């Protein structure tokens, strides 16, 4: 079949949506406020207010304040479950499971912890795992899963040290008020040489701008931001890729998985979600923060140091010892050749000459 005939066989609506999704994902669109209480423009912190904010934040749970002073708004667990039960959510879950399986391999016989909302990844991914548990932040809420889900605090995960082999973050880092504290807890519960998978919205993407999806809530991330956080918490970043290349408003008739595979094969720099993998490596140099430390010296030590420095400069310039010069000449040269800041140290010797 000729290329033109193959292109004409594709419906016009499918071609239009595909082209627009690629263009909207590539262009660096400004980050408009998704909700007034937890979203900011690109690079500018401001808090919009008004009825629009109240409408967009409906159905969500207000949490504590973040480090920047803005309140954190958690997505409700009911809305998350409803999204992944819809056709668009099922396609998103299929793409996420396929990419996670490609990154970490089979989870059979391994202990897995899903932090955030990990229910969409359980079926087909964690069924053969030796143990899997869903740790859901208290602000989001928990789902009914007997002995498999727990309502937890992000800063105190109820697991022992080095208890799991794989940690998967989904809808966690964009909603917690203190990502650094959460990463410290993940480091604690992850065994040495364990693997971490973080799934989070990409800042300059269409998925992060549409509030009708879970990725349109909370704080979006740039690739260098999440990599810097992982390195700071002593993780070794092993990979980072962009996924979800189809638009978030795709109709049910749109071949979303085909678009995802085609864009992946063409290596297009698009995608609304970042999938970052990292490992816990103990045999690595730990970063040490540079800081200034005070140096304590005895009283009046600076005067003796200034006098010795002045005498040393005179001896180096003249090539003789100070005692070989008359007292008046020595004092005069000490004042004129020493720096201005050291003249106060030599004033006592001048006054002694009378």
Main features:
disordered C terminus; seven-stranded mixed β-sheet; Rossmann fold; 354 residues; two-stranded antiparallel ribbon; alpha/beta; 37% helix
Strand and helix layout:
Blueprint: H1 3-9, H2 12-26, H3 51-56, E1 60-65, E2 71-75, H4 77-85, H5 87-104, E3 111-116, H6 119-122, E4 131-137, E5 149-152, E6 164-170, H7 179-189, E7 190-201, H8 223-232, E8 235-243, H9 256-265, E9 273-280, H10 301-318, H11 327-337, H12 343-353
Parallel strand pairs: 3-4, 3-6, 4-5, 6-7
Antiparallel strand pairs: 1-2, 7-9, 8-9
Q: What can you see in these coordinates?
A:
The protein is of the alpha/beta class and 354 residues long. It has two domains: 9-280, 3-Layer(aba) Sandwich (Rossmann fold); 301-353, no CATH class. The protein contains twelve helices and nine strands. The strands form two sheets. Strands 5-4-3-6-7-9-8 form a seven-stranded mixed sheet, with helices on both faces. A two-stranded antiparallel ribbon has the order 1-2. The longest helix has 18 residues, at 87-104. Residues 1-9, 25-70, 321-332, 340-346 and 348-354 have low confidence and may be disordered.
